[in-house]
Fold each of these.
Amino acid sequence: MNLRKLSSILLGMAIVGSLFNCAESALPNGPGDISSSSDGQLTSSGFLGSSSNPVDGGSSTTGSSYTGSSETAQSGGSSLTGTSSSNGIALPLGNAPSVSILPWNGAKGAYSIIMDDFCLATTTSLRWADSAAYARNMSIGFAIVTGSCQATDWATAKIMLGHGSEPVNHSFSHAAGATPVGLEVDSSTHMIETNTGFRPTFFGYPMDEGSDAAQAELKALGYLGSRSTTYTVWTDARFNKVAGFNGFTLAYEPKSSPTYPQLSYADSAVARGVWGLHESHGVADNSYNQWTSHAEFETHLDHLAALRDKGDLWVAPPSKVIRYIKLSTLATWTLVQATGAFEIHWTTPADTLARYSVPLRLQVCGEWTATQSGTSLNATLSGGQTKISANPSLGTVRITPTGAGNSLCTNNSGSSSSSTATSSGSAGGGAISITGSLQHLVAGTYSATTSCTGMVNLQGTRDINVSINGSPNIGLDYLAVPVPGPSFNLVVTGDVTVSCY
Ligand SMILES: [Zn+2]
């Protein structure tokens, strides 16, 4: 980002410094397309959001709109004077709040189960496994060997699909490398779609042996990812990270691996803030490397459910996790002031929204209620932040202040009329106390203290490196790591915002 250019943009805006609160810590760093809203119903305050790769900004100074980025938290800079009513009490609308997309659907890590060999005669327990997951409000991926399926199997597959479980293509005949692709990939795809109504988007290679021909065909068919040892890139042990994500080079972990025996794979996904993709087969049937008893499998599910219920782990089928990773990094929006509300207008291309359609977990500074197309959205308040689940493909999200409203977003670094990189925050390091409120840091070495025990969240841009107690994270755009302790060393090479819970 060109900071001088940014400064000129900000200086051209009607900024009222004393009104800055949660917007304070923002680091505008988005595309240079500066524009005002053309919607006559709305004011001219538009805020462009983007989580895509920053493009050097433009130089327009018209209106009171400017760019933001989900990497850096949305922010406002104009004088906003609307009011809204909550329980008959008029609340000041205040500044535009920071808006960001949380990783892993708001949890610390993600986890998917794929159970292979549905339809093979040796693997008769996956319907039971699905019901055991469904009883815990979870779902699985089940990998279908389509050439072995009978009509009753397809009927079962539709029931499992109805529980939210995902049909995964496991080839037609369980052929290594899934070749010839016309039969093993294309026909198998067609059979799943014809018999279940679901067009598969994830491929589990038989014996985990991939091939170039099949990889190319899967991409041509619009698949989101595949699982094979052949193409796995072990970027972070046996886990997948948002940074550098590629759905066709996924790391995964088979059941009974000596590396992560049983439950510790899920624990590690939480601790590392990554996605664990677990591979197994049937339960107490004749399948390969089976779960030896129902109790063994249910213990695994109960462990996942406990982590989920603590808010630590998001458990979902593989394609849903891939869509979340992709959309959370590709989503763009404009935050626009309306009468007594702000609106998140998605500007993501329609084909991207369709391909990666999935609810995102949004975090908005302050206390808000939210609606989308007139329907109330789930919104929960925690630590001065409201978390909202919304699928961008379903349209504009409208947020209205409630309770303490935007006043929950405190300015941690004194008054400032600008959110440029050098105007606020701790100057180049030193002692810092990290709290639940967003704070702006510039490059430096910090001795951090905190009373948080959950996660430290850092947002920056992709050319910023962060290290915590000497562990480097290169090319940060969003980092969520478990709080290392009440005090720790933090080094950043550029502007970031930080908070914790
Ligand atoms: Zn198999």
Amino acid sequence: MPPKLALAPAHGSTSGYTDSERLAALNWLANVESAFLACRGRHNFPKLLLTEGQLPPGIRAERQADRSYNITETCPDCGTRRTYSTVPDGWLGGLKIHYRYEWPDGYRVPPGAMTWITLDDMKAEQWTRVREALEAADKLARKAKRQAGAAAGPRAVPAVRFNGGA
Ligand SMILES: [Zn+2]
């Protein structure tokens, strides 16, 4: 089922925006990989955690000539990479960290598309895909259960005893 797209830009005025951008947004949302939708705003970057002296898969720390490090993390779900740098012999923390991102092909929305779709549209599309898959699986499970029940023949009705009366 194609996603429902706003008929007007998500962020207000229609001036300067084109139908071709809207169609590109619709097309992107309908065809984008589910991992790209699921990762919006919530990548699964590996932690900076040594296990037996080794960083986990998907994270690299490269020492630079000035004794700083460039740390590159790769999301195992979507393949997005982000790199940041420490300061020499220390940590450049908090909001000072500047992440440089590299996105896999197809991750980024086409130019102008964010005029037409919001993060919530992406999350709604992802949920639609998940919900439809869950419902299809549930339907199959119910059908299998019905068939198993039919193969087993009619269910025995438990004997009911009535107590007393008179
Ligand atoms: Zn990701």
